[in-house]
Amino acid sequence: MDFSLTDDQELLRDTARNILARECPASLVRAHIDDPTVAEPLWSRLREYCGLGSGPAVDLCLFVEATGYVAAPGPFFATVALFAPILEAAESDLLEKVLAGEVSGTVAMAGLDGLWAANREPRKTFVPEADRVDRVVVVNSGPTVTVAERLPARLVRTVDHSRRLFDVETAAAVADAQAIAPDALDRAVQRATIALSAELVGTCRRLFDMSLSYAKERVQFDRPIGSFQAIQHKLADMALDLERAWAAVYYAAMALDAGDDERARATHVAKATAGEAARRIGKDAAQIHGGIGYTWEHDLHLFLRRAFASEAWLGNTDWHHDRLADLIV
User: Fold this and answer.
1) pTM of whole model > 0.70?
2) Is residue 160 a contact partner of residue 77, using CB atoms and an 8 Å limit?
3) What CATH number should be reported for the domain holding residue 137?
């Protein structure tokens, strides 16, 4: 399999990085903690790229990896990585407006156990940005989908302030339920999981870059701490974890685009590998930064929070390892 990017994909990646570096500084992520409306200008800018909600998964991953690098808040990920694929799987007429950036949305699927599988529970959990989107698509057993405008939602405080998750009461969303093929739903969930893994790789890369920069600047015993072998070993391990995760994620994206029979296993490998990278890189980043890395004033915690929360969302590392074991056994 050829992992090289096309010229168009390199342009997409570079464009995403440039836009997000300019439009989403760490100060915006920090301000979003107290006032979610500060992310609205960013969402207005990212609307132009909602077309990535359909089409190659590799292109979507390249863009959301850049959003993960800056821990971008707002409804972009929920709209392009969750909402649009479910609408496409259901062959909804609303998809065209979503891809045009005219309608934002999110998905209410996980039940009280947190698993992203169709169920009959009236309360759905881990629903991102439920109070700031135009539509919520509810996935119930069958499987069926229902698109609703407004549903009762309760904010759930998590470790990550940049992605707001909600419990949503979906009992009212029973009218106009539309059947959806189980295989199509599985593919949509796989696409979302791979996209989240790519975003997580971006966040891990930010943690690595911050750690590498700090190791070059922080002086101890009249020497940069990056000259110490223990720090060098940690940075080397972080780089290896990062590259393993990157390869696993983009292999999964390519497998999904190709309709390969291995796409289900590749999806689990991608999320598990990215999750393992997040755990280890997050731990080492905190240790390399020392005491300053644990302070509220330093920006490191913004990305640590995003990494640890994303590792747990859409199935944590251990859960995906278990699913891999099921496929093998």
Assistant:
1) yes
2) no
3) 1.10.540.10
